[in-house]
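Field log, afternoon session.

UNIT: design team B
ACTIVITY: writing a sequence onto a fixed backbone
BACKBONE:
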């Protein structure tokens, strides 16, 4: 391993805004481990961790998921338990942790640095931040040199984004295919102001080699300690040390202890059903799209394609919906869609989606799937 005689397992922490391309990066690394045996821990804030299901190596038991919360807040203790259990149970060369899109990197890193039972086994090696260059380009407000954020949830998310950029060793400027070159130069200039030290790569579908993010030896705790973000984080911890919120991290991070299903002003819910969607009604609903939903992802059943796993993936302004595989005999076919946003009207969205399902009449056995026209793409 890179760090001299240190035989602890190197850890790569992948952060990045919602939909920036973290799962894409994790899948890329798992598909080409370049001789490394990699274990993956995936955190998602929805009650169903569709990210874990979307990560390639799941079938081999490579992937551990931490669900329904954000590892920087309510799942911090679980993170420590899980990584210790992993190290006791399995042999692997590197641990890759995919944080949820709303996780602050500092508290997650702190678990690896300061919890003895964790730091005995692991060494924080590389902090990777995946930045959605397209979203950044669209949202950035050059007047304030901060991402545009007019509401409270937006401000919190904007701070998380700045933290993710400031606190990294490797920065992937991802989704470059969606941004013109001159605008990319502007984005890179701004990012460089926030983050002069990190290795920066312009990527499309996170196309870097595993060596770029695994066992690099790039993490530099002294540089981190000097950073404004780390100091602010410590100051916040101090402010809340005798806090009125009794969160399980012992006062740390108390302002981010959340009401059920809400983190950093962002809420989520999962829509689940075994009744298939009517293709035209669901397609029209995707075109309309409810306000307040920033991120949506998961699988759905379509009346016309009972054998097919249909995927929905929406990140900011871009959406894809189409076939991603076939249901296997051991699967439990169902629609599982996670919605994430700052002002979600969950009841209204559930009602709209219910209205897109086949009615009892449409679902009768006599109904022939071929009777529906299907505007979704094939393969
Ligand atoms: N055009 C384009 N799309 C991309 C690129 N990278 C990822 N995507 C797509 O963006 C969507 C979100 O990618 P993910 O890898 O799931 O993003 P994520 O950061 O894991 O998302 P969360 O875990 O929900 O925060 C998917 O539909 C990807 O296929 C890219 O470079 N260009």
């Amino acid at each position: 391993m890179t760090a001299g005689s240190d035989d602890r397992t190197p850890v790569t922490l992948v952060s990045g805004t919602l939909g920036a391309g973290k799962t894409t990066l994790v899948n890329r690394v798992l598909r080409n481990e370049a001789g490394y045996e990699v274990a993956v821990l995936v955190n998602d804030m929805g009650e169903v961790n569709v990210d874990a299901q979307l990560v390639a190596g799941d079938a081999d038991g490579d992937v551990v998921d931490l669900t329904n919360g954000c590892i920087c807040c309510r799942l911090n203790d679980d993170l420590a338990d899980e990584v210790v259990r992993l190290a006791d149970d399995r042999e692997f060369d590197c641990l890759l942790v995919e944080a949820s899109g709303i996780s602050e990197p500092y508290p997650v890193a702190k678990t690896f640095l300061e919890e003895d039972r964790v730091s005995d086994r692991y060494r924080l090696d590389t902090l990777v931040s995946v930045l959605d260059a397209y979203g950044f380009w669209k949202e950035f407000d050059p007047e304030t040199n901060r991402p545009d954020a007019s509401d409270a949830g937006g401000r919190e998310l904007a701070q998380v984004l700045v933290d993710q950029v400031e606190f990294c060793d490797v920065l992937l400027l991802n989704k470059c295919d969606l941004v013109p070159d001159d605008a990319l130069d502007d984005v890179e200039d701004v990012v460089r102001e926030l983050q002069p030290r990190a290795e920066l790569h312009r990527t499309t579908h996170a196309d870097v080699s595993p060596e770029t993010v695994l066992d690099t030896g790039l993490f530099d705790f002294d540089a981190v300690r000097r950073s404004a973000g780390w100091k602010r984080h410590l100051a916040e911890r101090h402010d809340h040390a005798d806090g009125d919120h009794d969160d399980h991290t012992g006062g740390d991070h108390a302002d981010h202890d959340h009401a059920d299903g809400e983190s950093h002003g962002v809420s989520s819910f999962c829509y689940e059903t075994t009744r298939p969607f009517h293709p035209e009604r669901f397609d029209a609903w995707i075109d309309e799209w409810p306000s307040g939903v920033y991120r949506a992802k998961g699988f759905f059943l379509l009346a016309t394609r009972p054998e097919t796993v249909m995927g929905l993936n929406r990140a900011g302004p871009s959406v894809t919906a189409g076939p991603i595989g076939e249901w296997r005999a051991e699967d439990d076919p169902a629609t599982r869609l996670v919605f994430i946003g700052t002002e979600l009207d969950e009841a209204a969205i559930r009602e709209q989606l219910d209205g897109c399902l086949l009615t009892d009449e449409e679902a009768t056995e006599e109904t022939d799937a071929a009777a529906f026209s299907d505007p979704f793409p094939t393969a």
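LOG NOTE: The pocket of guanosine-5'-triphosphate is lined by residues 16, 18-24, 51, 101, 174-175, 177-178, 204-206, 295, 297, 313, 315, 320 (CB under 6 Å).
NEXT ACTIVITY: expression trials, pending approval
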